[in-house]
Amino acid sequence: MSALRPLPAPKPPTGYGRLPIGRWFLFAGVVGLLVLLAGAAVTMGTLSQLSDARRTVIEVVDPATLATLDLSVALSAQEGAARSFGLTTDPQYVAVYRQARADEDEAVRRINRLVPGPRLDAITKAAAAWRAQYGEPVIEGTPLTRENAGVNSVRFGEVRAAISAQRTYLENLHATSSARLNDRARSSTFAFGVLAAVLVALLVLIGFIVRHVVLRPVADLTAQVRAVAHGDFEHPLRIDRPAELAELAGHIDAMRRRILAQWRRSDEQAEELRRSNGELEQFAYVASHDLQEPLRKVASFTQMLEQRYGDQLDDRAKQYIAFAVDGAKRMQLLINDLLDFSRVGRIGGEKVPLDAGLPMADAVANLATQIEETGAEVTCGPLPEVTGNRSQLAQLFQNLVGNAVKFRGDEPPVVRVEARRDAEGMWEFSCADNGIGIEDKYAERIFLIFQRLHTRDRYPGTGIGLALCKKIVEYHGGRIWLDNHEGQGRGTTVRWTLPGRSDP
Known about the structure:
3 domains, 10 helices, Sig_transdc_His_kin-like_C, two-stranded antiparallel sheet, alpha+beta, Heat Shock Protein 90
């Protein structure tokens, strides 16, 4: 069979199918990452603005309102202490006045740090004018009169007005900051919603890629391969995307086309083999009838020639006649052996479960005369049940035992046939003798057809026996070999394997 030529490489996919799976996921990952970064930036900006608005309300407006309240309380305490001292001249009101003055300065520093501006300046100027025209003079001992009481009413009214303006400003600032805080909170909620939507969209995109780029092409390829596996060998395999599956489908389709071409070629070869087998069977029929008939006539008439004209022939002529008869008989034997060799596995070769002792008994019975003449001792151990053809296995045992008896030494032949399980679960048979033995260098040659190690004058035969044994064993699914590494002294051990009754 000629070697198969490599098929051309499948055509690369075009369009989106050119992109491998890694590129699809890289594309989805880059797009998703950019969208996530943009969403994260917007979300972080919104959170920063929310934090600023919250810090303005909590850390500026509210503390400034509290400080303004403290300032109002401190100024009211100064006004009350000055008026009470002017009425009673009790020194404790002086202490209250000084403490309220210190509280005023602390409140002014806090407000100036949080919300400095003209409103705070107006409060401090009005408070300073009140103290200069009323508070300090009264604390220093100026008696209360209707005149300075009027000054107190006017100047402290200015202080209250300035504080009221500060409070109004802080209330407006608080309302504005609260509205801004609420707006930033809504923006943050919206940003988180958008970010969640982006994540969901990214997952949907990845799912779309997995479904349309991976799962669906894999399902399509599986369906196409299943169709081919179920017998539709003409079904082409074609996947457009992704690049890896497209290339895989191309290689599988190339293998499909190659197997299909080889299958068709095998059908042609099988048809040619059937025709050749028919011709071989026809030749075997011709060889078994038409070729042997002339040989029988040659042998018969040559023997008749010797019987009728033997007294008229000299010794050389009689020798020639003997050569002709022997040649015809050997030719008949060779034809019969060749027919037996060609029939193995073709005619009457059905294999059935049987006891291996039966073909062994048939072989011993066929060799009874030869065993008796040579005084051979043939023994057999327990033989298992095997799957085989009885007549062919009988021929196998007969050839091996017959060789052991034929190729004997000076002592009477001793032949032992045994069987055991080997490591692979097969039945391993052995036929051991005490004959002349075979050198290791001829271990493979002896199983070739027409191979002889001795001359025909010393050991007659056609050289087909062991080749026939090898063909029978291989037809039964086993193997045969020569084993000269066991035992001591001369002799030969041939081993072969056969499947058991339950073995495939």
